[in-house]
Amino acid sequence: METRALTDADALALARAEARAGRTEGGVPIGAALVLDGAVLALGRNRRVQDGSAIRHGETDCLENAGRLPASVYARATMVTTLSPCDMCTGAILLYKIPRVVIGENRTFRGGEDLLRERGVEVVVLDDAECVTLMRDFIAAEPELWNEDIGEE
């Protein structure tokens, strides 16, 4: 039986599920998926609250969950994230030379998209209504936690 390759929308649905799970755990609702050739290599979600971590954002958690991979894998992969990546996550994407990033939404927060584009990364913004709602509801409910997550007072 042949397995159908994931579309960007399919991968974003997996990242959204991670975001919802993170929120249920009391964390920040941001999820991510690392995809290669239409298959998921790893999933992740923001785990700063759950793990008491300074750096476990959705994308960095996803990379950690993928484990050590050869540069040739990253060079063909796509990072799918529910929210525009912050500077730290943008840096990780650039460090590992991930050539494509799919973003669920950038209305509630706009991260390093311009830098990614300047460095040759293909950036696709899906403007997903559910991702927007997840973040708007979270920011309204927990503005202090959100500000902590993005390094603001």
From TrEMBL:
The keyword Cytoplasm applies. The keyword tRNA processing does not apply. Its main location: cytoplasm. One of its GO terms (cellular component) is cytoplasm. Its cofactor is Zn(2+). One of its GO terms (biological process) is nucleobase-containing small molecule metabolic process. It is found in: Cytoplasm. This is Nucleoside deaminase.
